[in-house]
Amino acid sequence: MKHTDIRELFTSPEKFVDTKVTVCGWVRTARDSKTVAFAEINDGTSFRNIQLVFDKTGMGEDEIRDVMNVGVSVKAEGMFVSSERNGFEIEVTSIKVLGTCPADYPLQKKRHTQEFLRTIPHLRVRTRYFEALFIVRDRLAFAIHSYFHSHGYRYVHAPIITGSDCEGAGEMFRVTTQPWNAEYKTEEEYYGDDFFGKKAGLTVSAQLEGEMAAMGLGRIYTFGPTFRAEHSNTTRHAAEFWQIEPEVCFADINDIIEVAEDFIKYIIKDVLDNCSEELRFFDQWVEKGLIEKLTNVIRSDFAKVDYSDAVKILSECGREFKFPVEWGCDLQTEHEKYLTDEYFKKPVFVVNYPADIKSFYMKQNPDGKTVAATDLLVPGIGEIIGCSEREADLEKLTAAMIKRNMPLDSYRDYLDTRKYGSVPHSGFGLGFERAIMYITGVQNIRDTLLFPRTVGSL
Ligand code: 4AD
Ligand code: MG
After folding, report:
1. C-alpha 423, offset from chain centre
2. Which domains does the chain have, with CATH numbers?
3. What is the pLDDT of residues 185-228, one digit of tens each?
4. N or C: which end of the chain has fewer CB within 10 A?
5. Residue 289, burial from CB neighbour count under 10 angstroms (0-12, 13-18, 19+)
6. Ligand 1 closest atom vs CA 445
7. How far is the CA of 175 from the centre of ligand 2 (A)?
8. To the nearest whole percent, how much of the chain has pLDDT over 90?
């Protein structure tokens, strides 16, 4: 269908002004009066709508009436002219309704609650809020690829179906083709008869495969969906989310912290530069001061605090927490919030966590109690990155796995990386949706995904 993208009209108006153009789109708002009618349409290429102006003396009443319904899709032809009020508009000479939109279209009103919009994920993408959100999401994905590509990383694609539980937290969704009523004497027998001949699940992290790839390619990153059957019904947990996981050989924990900070600043700057209109929208409607917050983040250094010092800060701050703080405990959302929102007031790396609350693969510090791991916490959200230097020593790694009762046999290939030419290496995982929440100010992870999957909701 020959037509011009609305985006093009706004980015190079000089090419089109005072000429005839054809545009397509959905009517977002419409206003009728005695002699003129107006309809703003959007085609998804531009966050800005273009206004169509109808001179009612020159056009059929019926034709115009059909266009006055919000949600109708149209093809319009007319003069693209500059207008004092709107910058530019189209004086319509001919209009065609492509698809009518009856009055039960749920997006009639201008503003709806997020709760309501979550009940119609298939339609909510037609609202300004979700249009802005998905424009930023798209741009962020692009910025992530461009960061790694300009820094010599190879993009690798790890399998989604896997036999190993990277985080060891038992949150894997099972993948099976077994009939539900199969009767077997042992688990082994049951899984042995399954599609892969063994127990399989959806990946919770691409890290282990990423580490193996890095051992040949030097610096890699993955960017794909990950799945966790966590029963956390919170605003920050999804059962299906996207993770960005770089893995860097010949890098220790301090090197990877530098990468993480540089990377986060780069993607924020990219969105500030390329999605200014969308960010202004979020600044106005979602988080006041958002743009200033992001600008400050790229201009200043992130904070860094030892886990032990963080525990001290929390236990001496005089605050009553629901979960008491003591050395060895995992930091809860309330603790993370205090550290980021009130104490540091900016992103902070908490480093050197107790080994017992972290995963098996993390490098064991000489103190025998902590590991070279860090979480990046940000104001308003809490953890967005989980990061560590990996234990490169075969014996120490094996000991950590035995301590956790892990089946060494299932991890033979992974252990080979430590057996054959092991090197110091480090990596991290950024939760894509959590990054989007931080950058847009959106408070619920369900509003960052096209079709969110959370516990009890598919
Ligand atoms: O801290 P996590 O569990 O770390 C890993 O998976 C490591 N293997 C990463 C690595 O070193 N390659 O998860 C990483 C990040 C978290 O910081 C969080 O942002 C996000 O993934 N995340 C979730 N996001 C949404 N919903 C969930 N259920 C999430 N679980 C983790
Ligand atoms: Mg984590």
Report:
1. 31
2. 6-105 (2.40.50.140), 128-169+204-447 (3.30.930.10)
3. 888 888 888 999 989 999 999 999 999 999 999 999 999 999 99
4. N
5. exposed
6. 25
7. 24
8. 88
